[in-house]
Amino acid sequence: MFWDPRIERMPQKELEEYQERKLKALVHNVYNHSAFYRKRFKEAGINPWDFSGIKDLQKLPFTKKQDLRDNYPFGMFAVPISQIVRFHASSGTTGKPTVVGYTVNDIECWVESLCRGLVSCGVSREDVVQISYGYGLFTGGLGFHYAAERVGATVLPTSAGNTARQIELMKDLKTTVIACTPSYMLYLTEYASKAGVDLKEDTKLRLGIFGAEPWSEETRKRIEEKAGIDAYDVYGTSELSGPLFTECEEKCGVHVWGDHFLIEIIDPETGEQLGEGEKGELVVTTLSKEALPLIRWRTGDITVMEGEKCACGRTHPRIMKILGRSDDMIIVRGVNVFPSQIEHVLMQIPEVGEHYMIILDREENGLDVMTVQVELSENAEVDKVSDLLELEKRIANSLKSVLNVTAKVEVVNPGTLQRFEGKAKRVIDRRKI
Amino acid sequence: MYEDKVIKQLSVFVENKPGRLAAVTEILYREKINIRAFTIAEAGDFGIIRMVVDRTEDAYNSLKKAGFTVTLTRVLGVIVEDEPGGLYRIAKALGDQGINIEYVYAFTYGGDKALIILRVDDIEKAAEILESRGLLYDGST
Question: Is-above-0.80 flag for pTM?
Answer without folding.
Answer: no
